[in-house]
Amino acid sequence: MENREIRYQFGSLDNITPETFGEPGNRTFRLSLFVESYTGLVWLEKEQLFELSKYFEDLCGDNPDRKDNTGFRECLLASDYQPTEFKCRQLSVNFDKDSDTFYVECREEGETIDDTSSLSFYLSGSQAVQLAKAGIEICESGRPICPLCHNPIDPDSHFCPKSNGHSKL
Ligand SMILES: [Zn+2]
Questions:
Q1: Ligand 1 centre distance from Cα of residue 27 (Å)
Q2: Which of 20, 29, 140, 160 has the least C-beta neighbours within 10 A?
Q3: Which residue has the higher pLDDT, 82 or 62?
């Protein structure tokens, strides 16, 4: 599944961490990627991180016969690689059920490979589950939980299915 259009191919990650910065309602989110001595930072919208986490959780959260490392891919970064950091506009994910491995592509906005940063990485099922847990946790943290519908409340507005509309708190 290697893609020549992708500038930085991290291969199977050693570690991936979701992080958040800033005040509730005005937070930013990123993924820190680690493989060998290489690192990368991908900034995401909260919705992207949340959807990615839910996707991981839904697809492999309860996989009974988890086998790790069958989908291991080598890191293809050059030795002169400099740590990359960009805001992800396009996120795409593939799941290979047989090897219990996710393939993720992150792209910055741009027309060609030269003016666009992009990277790809692979995650084992257990790494994906860990990321999903942590990702959902930080997406939902920092916001109070609605006593009616038990969903997190955004500071600006909350559409509450239990009260048929917006409730100001
Ligand atoms: Zn509610």
A1: 21
A2: 140
A3: 82
